[in-house]
UniProtKB/TrEMBL annotation:
Gene name of the encoded protein: greA
InterPro entries found in the cross-reference section: GreA/GreB_C_sf, Tscrpt_elong_fac_GreA, Tscrpt_elong_fac_GreA/B, Tscrpt_elong_fac_GreA/B_C, Tscrpt_elong_fac_GreA/B_fam, Tscrpt_elong_fac_GreA/B_N, Tscrpt_elong_fac_GreA/B_N_sf
GO molecular function, one term: RNA polymerase binding
GO BP term, example: DNA-templated transcription elongation
Residue stretches making up the Transcription elongation factor GreA/GreB C-terminal domain: 88-151
Family: Belongs to the GreA/GreB family.
Protein's name according to its UniProt entry: Transcription elongation factor GreA
Transmembrane segments: none
Source species, domain of life: Bacteria
Alphabetized UniProt keyword annotations: DNA-binding, Transcription, Transcription regulation
Species of provenance: Candidatus Uhrbacteria bacterium RIFCSPLOWO2_02_FULL_48_18
Record-linked Pfam families: GreA_GreB, GreA_GreB_N
Length: 151
């Protein structure tokens, strides 16, 4: 399954992957080694904790490798007429203007204005144009967004 990412998003994943392989693996191996020196492993909390960390790290390494392998770079859209993956746009909601970017799910960060193209809000924006009014149902009730501009 493709992983939609910006160039920066792919670089971030590669950096995390490299850090987990070169640095975090080593740190966990040192913790395991130190815990083994404490004696009986059957009731050794430090050992079991380090082994759990090792398993979680290795799972993330595999997940990152898969995402990097399946990465599809989405170029930032500039000057387009409709909203799509990679588009940055300005909306008006409740009298305030907000800037959002439609990104792949792995890069989403709603607090920074990065909305996943797979989220209900992201899906609602897809394909709309400047001037469109979009009503989105949220847990707090219906919200109406007006697309002001596409960057």
């Amino acid at each position: 399954m493709p992983t939609y990412l910006s160039k920066q998003g792919l670089e971030d994943l590669k950096a995390e992957h490299a850090k987990r392989i070169t640095q975090i693996r080593k740190e966990i191996a040192e913790k395991i080694s130190a815990a083994k020196e404490l004696g009986d492993l059957s009731e050794n909390f430090e050992y079991h904790e380090a082994k759990e960390q090792q398993g979680l790290n290795e799972s993330r390494v595999v997940q990152l490798a898969d995402m990097i392998r399946d990465a599809v770079i989405v170029n930032e859209s500039t000057g387009g007429t409709s909203l799509g993956l990679g588009t940055t746009f300005v909306v008006e909601v409740n009298g305030a203007q907000k800037t959002y970017s439609l990104v792949g799910s792995n890069e989403s960060d709603p607090m920074s204005g990065k909305i996943s193209n797979e989220s209900p809000i992201g899906l609602a924006f897809m394909g709309h144009e400047v001037g469109d009014l979009i009503e989105i149902q949220t847990p707090g009730g219906a919200m109406t967004y007006k697309i002001i501009s596409i960057k």
